[in-house]
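Supplementary Note 3. Input sequence used for the single-chain structure prediction.
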Amino acid sequence: MRKLIKIAAATAAFFATAPAFAGWEPTKPVEIVVAAGAGGASDQMARMMQAAIQKNNLLKQPVVVSLKGGASGAEALMYMKSSDGDPNKVLIAYSLIYMLPLSAKLPFDWRELSPVAVIALDQFVLWDNVNGPKTVKEFIEAAKASSSPFKLGGTGSKREDHVLTVFMEKKTGAKFSYLPYKSGGEAATQLVGGHTEANVNNPSENLEVWRAGQVRPLCVFDKERISYTTKVTETQSWNDIPTCKEQGLDVQYLMLRGMFLPGKVTQEQQEFYVDLFSKLVQTPEYKDYMEKQALKPIFLTGKDMLQFLEEDGSLNKQLMTEAGFVAK
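The predicted structure, written as discrete structure tokens, is reproduced below.
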């Protein structure tokens, strides 16, 4: 991962000084396809991208955001699969592209699409209600002592949040009851209301309720702390949140944020979008969003992206298999 991030930095530097792209460009509105419901991290990111592209005049055509979260995101994947050769649809993808085909036997393979760029990585945080345990150790002890499994909310079933919940059980011996919701926003609301004991939302999904003093971040599921040091609340920055490993819970997971075109587009069309997203990640709006939402910076295209996807796909398959989520 460190090697890939170094490659990403060099690639971003190259694109920052590259000449303006000339050649094919869209002649009708560009659709950013989101494999999730309204209010979640993918929806938020897509709308930020829409606004940044239009504000900075990166595209002559309008950009529209299309939410296709039906069937746990299968709607979006099959929509893209059925759009071969259409360069006006761009999927904002996450680890769902590996997980859903495994858990639901969905006839979809990310290799059927045309990779454009990996633009960020999502980190996950273990959150509890502000009235709950104050440390990971206290949280695990309370979960073990509970007469019934602690309820953990998350987005969807047999996906990132669910996998993290299962591996927390395996690492600690505590019992959790996973409750799937339509979005991270809904999972956050359920935690604030006391209907769940915790969630493993990524930072953006719990940001506002953290600022409001309603939830507490216990640890981040990464090998290193979130890099951003600006205060988010009156007393804490993202960087102040310890890693779960620091707290004795050795579980790590990072989630892909990548852009894909349908299959069978031309190389020229693919190159247009590589150029578009290389410019997008340099905009003030994008950089501001990355920090506010605590996303991990990365930018990969071409062979580097394909290598990342193959390795990341293998890791997700391994985790899904160990969790018992692969359909037979």
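The two ends are 31 Å apart (CA to CA). Confidence is low (pLDDT under 50) at residues 11-20.
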